Amino acid sequence: MGWALVLHDGAGDVPRTLPPETREPRLVALCRCLDLGAAALRDGRAALDVVELVVWELEDCPHFNAGRGSVLTADGTVEMEACIMEGATLRCGAVAGLSTVANAVSLARLLMEKTPHIYLAFDGAEAFARELEANRRVYVLTWSVGQF
After folding, report:
1. 91-98 and 119-121: which strand pairing?
2. Mean pLDDT of 123-144
3. pLDDT tens per residue, range 78-122
4. 93 and 110 in contact (C-beta within 8 Å)?
5. What sign for the dihedral angle of Cα 113, 119, 132, 47?
6. 53 and 36 in contact (C-beta within 8 Å)?
7. Average pLDDT of 59-66?
8. SS3 label, residue 121
9. Contact, 29 vs 64, CB < 8 A?
10. CA within 20 to 30 Å of 137's CA: 10, 20, 84, 109, which one?
11. Distance of alpha carbon 115 from alpha carbon 113, whole angstroms
């Protein structure tokens, strides 16, 4: 069976009039993510691993409205969410209202794999992240809001 990989750069409007100096880094980052995911799939990595890998890259890139590039709330804070699902088993994990976790997709996956829950939000999700902080796959943000 073959595979396909589809990416998008998040919710929101990206105007066609976006200047090249802003548009080009986004396109380069998307191509990098696509290449990373395609290479992992060619190497036989599991689809769930590839999804987490590619979303992690998007979350770490300041050009996208996820993780490090999150848009601030009206109060000047960050509230991130992520979900992940395994199609073969229909298992899923979702987290929301995160303000201290850099890679929400990894926390969602750990929720799916390590607990009977499918959804945690705000204080519950933050507490779960703190319990797992020693795990390198989920790390607490240490930069200030001004660095987003």
Report:
1. parallel
2. 67
3. 899 999 999 999 999 999 999 888 899 999 999 999 999 999 999
4. yes
5. positive
6. yes
7. 87
8. strand
9. yes
10. 10
11. 6
Taking Cα atoms as reference points, which of 41, 77, 82 lies closest to residue 58?
82
The per-residue pLDDT for range 22-61, each reduced to its tens digit, is 889 989 999 999 999 999 999 999 999 999 999 999 999 9
76: alpha, beta or left? (left if phi > 0; alpha if psi -120 to 50): left
Degrees to nearest 5, angle at CA 113 with 108 and 114: 100
Q: How far apart are the first and last CA of the chain?
A: 41
User: pTM of the full predicted structure?
Assistant: 0.85
pLDDT at res. 98? 92
Domain borders along the chain are: 20-147
**Nearest CA among 143, 144, 114 for reference residue 131:** 114
User: How is residue 62 written in tokens?
Assistant: 């300041």
Query: What are the helix and strand counts (H, E) for the chain?
Result: 4, 3
